[in-house]
Amino acid sequence: MAVTIKSAREIELMKEAGKILAKTHDELEKFIRPGISTLDIDRKGEEIIRSFGCIPSFLNYNGYPASICVSVNDEVVHGIPSRHHIIKEGDIVSLDAGVIYKGYHSDAARTWGVGEISPEAAKLIEVTKQSFFEGIKYAKAGNHLYDISNAIDAYVRPFGYGIVQDLVGHGIGSHLHEDPEIPNFRQKRRGIKLQPGMTLAVEPMINMGRCDVAWLDDDWTVVTEDGSLSAHYENTILITEDEPVILSLIQ
Ligand code: MF3
Ligand code: CO
Predict the structure, then answer these.
(1) Which secondary structure element, helix H or strand E, spans residue 243, and what is its range?
(2) 156/152 Cα distance (integer angstroms)
């Protein structure tokens, strides 16, 4: 599938989708506390998304059974919410959510610490978030796609963390996953040339230990192979001639 350039109308719809998703994450941040289950987070997230007249895009996507991916501690992404999984003080919780507004998608993820967390965990969360911002410094027309990947890699590498390679970012628009794939690690090639109107989901997934990941028997939950903590940060962005517009963040 070719990389699509969005029209002005499509961009307006994606801006609206992004705003709603940003609000959803802000609400969920306030909701997270020790004692609730990961299913409580999913229910709350679905309720917020639907209250804006949006559809949670992950629900039933390739059979995924929930609206919000809730990935705790050594879970990297795609954790399946469960009423048996109770959040506790000191956990780090990655929430990944997607919404569809009038046929257009937005996709974003955040990692939150619950109560008091270790300084090492806080650092991992901060570096993962910052790596997104380092990457998108290169997300402008005329640059190449892998300038983003290389910038994320160059920023993260000195911390000694493992950059997940088995999962990548992606184009987004009328589908959740569109071309191109956006790796978060160094590439030998330059990748496609970025053009105004491209919309991308950039999503570094960073492990405190090694980069290797494994899939649990539920066929969804991705965990670090060495059991180390993992963080995830993602936004949907719009490429322009100038600075990128971060659609899924209220600034
Ligand atoms: N942000 C995730 C991604 O880009 C979406 C979760 S996949 C789903 O792959 F199946 F849970 F929807
Ligand atoms: Co995504």
Answers:
(1) none
(2) 6
CA distances from 41 to 37, 69, 211 (A): 7, 9, 27
Q: What is the mean pLDDT of the chain?
A: 98
Is the pLDDT assigned to residue 204 strictly greater than 90? yes
Distance separating alpha carbons of residues 26 and 242, to the nearest angstrom: 27
Question: What is the rounded CA–CA span in Å between residue 12 and residue 15?
Answer: 5
In the reported structure, the alpha carbon of residue 128 is separated from the centroid of ligand 2 by a whole-number distance in angstroms of: 15
Question: Within a 10 A sphere around the Cβ of 2, how many other Cβ atoms?
Answer: 9
Decide if pLDDT at 1 tops 80. no
Number of Cβ within 10 Å of residue 103's Cβ equals 12
- Which residue carries 């569809």 as its tokens? 100
Give the Å distance between the CA of 176 and the centre of ligand 2.
7
| Alpha carbon distance 151, 184 (integer Å) | 8
C-beta atoms surrounding 83 within 10 Å: 11
Q: For a pocket test of ligand 1, which of 41, 42, 61, 236 has the largest count of ligand atoms closer than 8 A to its C-beta?
A: 61
pTM, two decimal places: 0.98
